[in-house]
Specification:
It comes from Onychostoma macrolepis. The structure is a single chain. The chain is of the alpha/beta class and 327 residues long. The chain has 2 domains: 127 residues, NAD(P)-binding Rossmann-like Domain (Rossmann fold); 160 residues, Rossmann fold. The chain is 33% helix and 15% strand. It contains 11 helices and 12 strands. A 7-stranded parallel β-sheet has the order 8-7-6-9-10-11-12, with helices on both faces. It has a 5-stranded parallel β-sheet with strand order 2-1-3-4-5, with helices on one face. Helix 10 links the parallel strand 10 and strand 11. Helix 1 runs parallel beside helix 11, helix 2 runs parallel beside helix 3 and helix 5 crosses helix 7. The longest helix is centred in the C-terminal third of the chain and has 20 residues. It binds NADPH dihydro-nicotinamide-adenine-dinucleotide phosphate and (2R)-2,3-dihydroxypropanoic acid (DGY). NADPH dihydro-nicotinamide-adenine-dinucleotide phosphate (NDP) binds next to helix 7. NADPH dihydro-nicotinamide-adenine-dinucleotide phosphate binds next to helix 7.
Length: 327
């Protein structure tokens, strides 16, 4: 390809080298990379995207009308290094005929595994225990000390039995879970595999010992877990969220946790991200917060990077994308 024919691509972050190699080897892109582990400042994003044919972005980049205007009419494809796409203004993107690539399936196992780890860490109070060992709080073996809640014989409720929700359910069942409830927009045939019972949200919240949120963030799920929601949970229940922070009203969660309305919460996602270090949730022993690491295994991130690059290239050439979001 001649220099004039090269397609301009803006990459908003340093990404795993697997994807970069694919983009470089293709020899069809004039690559401009925000070569940092930190997010691209908004002004740099608006500048970097100008005239681009392709945009490779992350979930921390808000791609709205302003960015699309700054890109201009060349922009043919947006490829996000994520399965979640709540950071993309889909209506605006669709209106402009831009194609979108994303990374479903390849991160399902890693995210489900992390969700199970977070659930167990929260329910069995692992961070508290580790802290007590370090600070000298471990005086002897005590029958009533650091007791938590186990999965055996329990009822687990999954909000959003999608790819990740089902993978979580599959992993939790062998721990001796007695009932697996789920809710969503419609019953799922694949729920049979985990003996899943489709129930209204209200039933799930009232009856579950563990409530696991794995739905996508949409206008319907934004703020879904609020005061009303937590007030229906059992006082002994554990709340886990690995979807998006905005599904939870964090002030209401703080009240539920600090008043003993629910037993504990484990969050891999928050609003904002990062959660400020002086945030009230971080003062609570019964709240375990992780820095959005659901998909963070080396191999998963490498494969996500490859898929994101391949989505971008195929989108640019107008061919079938390995994972195109149906708009
Ligand atoms: P899927 O699209 O397969 O699943 C999303 C699920 O959300 C579907 O089952 C859908 O149900 C459900 N849902 C949508 N609206 C509602 C609603 N109003 N009430 C209840 N459920 C609803 O996506 P994935 O499983 O692949 O990913 C899910 C989300 O997980 C992503 O969107 C992302 O936000 C988050 N994620 C977080 C990660 C992390 O690092 N913590 C890693 C990867 C993903 P239905 O089918 O009935 O519409
Ligand atoms: C996603 O892909 O949506 C996650 O939040 C990060 O992997």
């Amino acid at each position: 390809m001649s220099a004039q024919q090269m397609l301009k691509v803006f990459v908003t972050r340093r990404i795993p080298q697997e994807g970069m190699k694919i983009l470089q080897k293709a020899g069809m892109c004039n690559l401009s990379v925000w070569d940092s582990d930190e997010p691209v400042p908004r002004a740099e994003l608006l500048k970097g995207v100008a005239g681009a044919h392709g945009l490779l972005c992350l979930l921390s980049d808000k791609i709205d009308a302003e960015v699309l205007d700054a890109a201009g009419p060349n922009l043919k494809v947006i490829s996000t290094l994520s399965v979640g796409f709540d950071h993309l203004a889909i209506d605006e993107i669709k209106k402009r005929g831009i194609r979108v690539g994303y990374t479903p399936d390849v991160l399902t196992d890693a995210t489900a595994e992390l969700t199970v780890a977070l659930l167990l860490a929260t329910a069995r109070r692992l961070p508290e225990g580790v802290e007590e060992v370090k600070n000298g709080g471990w005086s002897t073996w005590k029958p009533l000390w650091l007791c938590g809640y186990g999965l055996s014989g329990s009822t687990v409720g999954v909000i959003g039995l999608g790819r990740i929700g089902l993978a979580i359910a599959r992993r939790l069942k062998p721990f001796g879970v007695k009932r697996l409830l789920y809710t969503g927009r419609q019953p799922k045939p694949q729920a049979q595999e985990v003996d899943g019972e489709y129930v209204p949200l209200d039933t799930l919240v009232r009856e579950s010992d563990f409530v696991v949120v794995s739905c996508s963030l949409t206008p319907d799920t934004q703020g879904l877990c609020n005061n009303n929601f937590f007030s229906k949970m059992k006082k002994t229940s554990i709340f886990i969220n690995t979807s998006r922070g905005a599904v939870v009203n964090q002030e209401d969660l703080f009240k539920a946790l600090s008043s003993g309305q629910i037993a504990a919460a484990g969050l891999d996602v928050t609003t904002p991200e990062p959660l400020p270090t002086n945030h009230p949730l971080l003062t609570l022993k019964n709240c375990v917060v992780l820095p959005h690491i659901g998909s963070a295994t080396y191999s998963t991130r490498g494969i996500m990077s490859e898929l994101t690059a391949n989505n971008l290239l195929t989108g640019l050439t107008g061919s079938e994308m390995p994972s195109e979001l149906k708009l």
